[in-house]
């Protein structure tokens, strides 16, 4: 994992509930296991946004929460607690955020503050998320940082905000997606940090063209506990909010059943290239030579009785070698997809930060 | 995890032994001709002696009888030679390139493929040890690698088996040719030795010995070398048994004849370490080529002047029995005889 030499911030002055020196910090890049595992429920596939860039500091609250994994502590800090990831949100949402501030970021976050956030950014990603954000926070951590943005229907297709890629499920299925509802559809657990029923590892469909298919299977019930989602800390819930203070807190991804591997786009790209080279090397030096073999019993002369067993094995080797090359290639593509997602997200974040007029502290 | 990759071992190029076989057959032919010439030259004296002994002034029955008996022995010798030559020409020679080609498949394909897999295996092993992937999810990612590594290791094992699948038959087929060459070359030396042997009062003895030796060669060629009975067949059967063994038929990692998917969910507890060979070269592969019949000159004593006598009771009997009588004195074998 490469450490950034400097911190990128998209803090916008005047935003309530954000701490200048921490809240706007663009988080480190994280990679979710699913993205480097081509067969884990479609992980790594860009289709449908699944496997796209996960988190990213990008504001999308959710995004932040996800990336800032482990920031459960932030939850505790409530409102301002927003750590990484909230920055973008804040940028867009502006004051909206802070709101929470108070007690568990989660609560605050839900309070419709998310709405503000949406408007703030004025981007698809954040748009229309609203209170729901809170509920999503945890989800964002699952893989995408979808956060508020993720909720926006329009944001699905856009991995930019680190939300679209998230490939969250149809917003309509998400709790609290109704902008007009302050309920947010999420019922905060009374004890935020208490891990409740473990949510099954998020499953990402192998194919989800156009994002029509929900990359991440979301529980339909708005109640985290009921849905089997491990109750994230309060902060975690808040993380879903565009700017909610708790947003940053982001759910501890491990609590959500999602494990992360810290990596940089360069590392992912290098690893992907490595597997791609391996795939090509394997095809050229193993698959093709074996595939070109087409012996007959005549070739075995007086030892023709040995032909059947050899030919049988040869047939199996041909199949194996072909599948091996395909598998290596799939691994490469999954890693490459993740790498590309990271880069895209970073670029988008930078652009967004500039657009929102954020400053970059020295 | 540590894996051991089995790589087919390269070996020297294999060439057709047909030239050697032809050379040996040619040598046999030359030796037989030498025997014939020597016997005919000696037979002239025997014929004259028979004529002097049993024929009158206007008769040559004994002489003709003597020479006819000698010619029968010579013809038998050439018949056996032709049988051996034709047997090689029609049954064995068509496979002269089988060994070299199968061996070439082994060296050019399987050995090379095995060598190419080795660095890939090493590379994945290295990746599996990389530590720059940190975090809880790293474990999940890394869990995929042992499966791929084990699959590659087992695949490598199968490559070795496939190599043996062509190399063992190649060696056996080549062994058959080598056996023939060994047999033919030995027979040529033996028969050449007969040609230079002084036989005393035993006429057409050289060709009789040659016919006996060639007869044994033909029998062995027909009943053993070409069928494999007592030679290469047991080894081939052992080879086939291994190629069809459960170790080969039932893959450990490549189950269902399918390459495992890169997933952390795979059970890695039973992954093959690649240390258990799926195939072991059967014993005897390397000795098939040295198999050859132990030939001798038989017990024939050729033709004597007395055999031309008009008395029916003294007739030598059918030509085909020349090698079975035992009433004549034992002949001292020449030092240049048996090889």
Summarize the structure.
Chain A has helices at residues 61-67, 72-77, 86-93, 105-121, 132-143, 147-151, 224-227, 234-239, 245-249, 265-291, 307-355; strands spanning 30-32, 260-262.
How would you describe this protein?
With 362 residues, chain A is an all-alpha fold. Helix content of chain A is 40%, strand content 2%. Chain A has helices at residues 61-67, 72-77, 86-93, 105-121, 132-143, 147-151, 224-227, 234-239, 245-249, 265-291, 307-355; strands at residues 30-32, 260-262. Mean pLDDT of chain A is 49; it is low at 1-35 and 40-260. Chain B has one domain (18-321). Chain B contains seven helices and no strands. Chain B is rod-shaped. The chains are: A mainly alpha (362), B mainly alpha (339).
Q: What would the keywords be for this entry?
A:
heterodimer, A: 362 residues, mainly alpha, 2 domains, B: 339 residues, 7 helices, 0% strand, disordered N terminus, disordered C terminus
Question: Which helices and strands appear, and what pairs or packs with what?
Answer:
The complex is a heterodimer of chains A (362) and B (339).
Chain A: E1 30-32, H1 61-67, H2 72-77, H3 86-93, H4 105-121, H5 132-143, H6 147-151, H7 224-227, H8 234-239, H9 245-249, E2 260-262, H10 265-291, H11 307-355
Antiparallel strand pairs in A: 1-2
Chain B: H1 18-54, H2 61-92, H3 98-129, H4 136-195, H5 205-225, H6 233-243, H7 246-249
Helix pairs in contact in B: 1-2, 1-4, 1-5, 2-5, 3-4, 4-5, 4-6
Calculate Rg of chain B over CA atoms: 32 Å
Q: Count every helix of chain A, treating DSSP H or I runs of 4 or more residues as helices.
A: 11
The major beta sheet of chain A can be summarized as: 2 strands, antiparallel
- The best one-word shape of chain B is rod-shaped
Please give the oligomerization state of what you see: heterodimer
Q: How much of the residues of chain A is beta strand, in percent?
A: under 5%
Element string of chain B (H = helix, E = strand) = HHHHHHH
State the major sheet of chain B.
Answer: none
Coarse structural class of chain A: mainly alpha
């Amino acid at each position: 994992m490469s450490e950034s030499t400097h911190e990128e911030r998209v803090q916008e002055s005047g935003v309530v509930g954000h701490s200048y020196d921490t809240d706007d910090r663009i988080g480190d890049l994280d990679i979710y296991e699913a993205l480097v595992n081509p067969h884990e429920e479609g992980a790594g596939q860009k289709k449908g946004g699944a496997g796209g860039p996960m988190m990213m500091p990008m504001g999308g609250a959710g995004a932040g929460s996800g990336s800032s994994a482990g920031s459960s502590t932030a939850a505790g800090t409530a409102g301002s607690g927003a750590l990484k990831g909230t920055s973008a949100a804040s940028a867009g949402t502006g004051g909206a955020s802070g709101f929470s501030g108070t007690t568990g970021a989660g609560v605050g976050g839900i309070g419709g503050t998310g709405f503000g956030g949406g408007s703030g950014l004025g981007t698809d990603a954040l748009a229309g998320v609203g209170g729901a954000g809170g509920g999503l926070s945890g989800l964002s951590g699952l893989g995408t940082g979808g956060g508020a943005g993720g909720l926006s229907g329009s944001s699905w297709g856009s991995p930019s905000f680190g939300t679209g890629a998230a490939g969250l499920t149809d917003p309509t299925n998400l709790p609290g997606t109704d902008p007009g509802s302050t309920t947010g559809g999420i019922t905060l657990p009374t004890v935020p940090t208490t891990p409740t029923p473990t949510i099954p590892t998020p499953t990402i469909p192998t194919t989800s063209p156009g994002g029509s298919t929900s990359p991440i299977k979301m529980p339909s019930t708005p109640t985290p506990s009921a849905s089997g989602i491990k109750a994230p800390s309060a902060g975690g819930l808040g993380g879903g909010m565009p700017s909610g203070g708790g947003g940053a807190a982001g759910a501890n991804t491990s609590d959500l059943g999602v494990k992360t591997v810290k990596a940089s786009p360069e590392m992912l790209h290098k690893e992907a290239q490595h597997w791609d080279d391996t795939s090509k090397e394997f095809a050229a030096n193993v698959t093709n030579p074996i595939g070109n073999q087409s012996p007959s019993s005549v070739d075995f002369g007086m030892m023709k009785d040995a032909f059947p067993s050899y030919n049988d094995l040869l047939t199996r080797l041909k199949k194996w070698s072909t599948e091996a090359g395909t598998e290596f290639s799939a691994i490469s593509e999954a890693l490459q997809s993740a790498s590309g997602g990271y880069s895209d997200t970073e670029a988008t974040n930078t652009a967004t930060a500039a657009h929102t007029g954020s400053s970059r502290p020295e | 995890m540590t894996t051991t990759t089995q790589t087919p071992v390269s070996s020297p190029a294999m060439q057709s032994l047909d030239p050697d076989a032809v050379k040996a057959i040619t040598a046999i032919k030359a030796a037989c001709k030498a025997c014939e010439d020597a016997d005919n030259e000696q037979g002239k004296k025997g014929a004259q002696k028979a004529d002097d002994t049993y024929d009158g002034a206007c008769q040559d029955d004994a002489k003709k009888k003597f020479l006819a008996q000698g010619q029968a022995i010579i013809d038998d010798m050439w018949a056996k030679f032709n049988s051996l030559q034709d047997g090689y020409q029609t049954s064995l020679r068509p496979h002269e390139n089988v060994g070299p080609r199968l061996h070439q498949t082994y060296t050019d394909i399987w050995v090379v493929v095995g060598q190419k897999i080795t660095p890939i295996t090493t590379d994945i092993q290295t990746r599996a040890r990389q530590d720059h992937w940190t975090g809880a999810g790293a474990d999940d990612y890394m869990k995929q690698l042992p499966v791929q590594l084990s699959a590659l290791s087992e695949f490598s094992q199968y490559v070795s088996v496939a190599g043996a699948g062509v190399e063992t038959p190649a060696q056996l087929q080549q062994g058959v040719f080598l056996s023939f060459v060994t047999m033919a070359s030995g027979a040529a030396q033996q028969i050449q030795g007969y040609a230079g042997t002084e036989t005393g009062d035993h006429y057409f003895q050289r060709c009789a010995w040659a016919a006996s030796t060639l007869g044994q060669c033909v029998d062995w060629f027909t009943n053993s070398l070409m069928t494999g009975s007592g030679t290469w067949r047991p080894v081939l059967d052992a080879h086939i048994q291994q190629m069809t063994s459960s170790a080969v038929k039932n893959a450990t990692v490549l189950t269902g004849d399918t390459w495992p998917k890169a997933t952390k969910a795979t059970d890695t507890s039973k992954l093959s370490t690649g240390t258990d060979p799926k195939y072991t070269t059967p014993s005897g592969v390397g000795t098939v080529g040295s198999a050859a019949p132990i030939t001798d000159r038989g017990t024939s004593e050729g033709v004597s002047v007395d055999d031309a006598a008009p008395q029916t009771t003294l007739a030598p009997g059918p030509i085909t029995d020349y090698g079975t009588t035992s009433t004549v004195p034992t002949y001292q074998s020449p030092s240049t005889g048996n090889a």
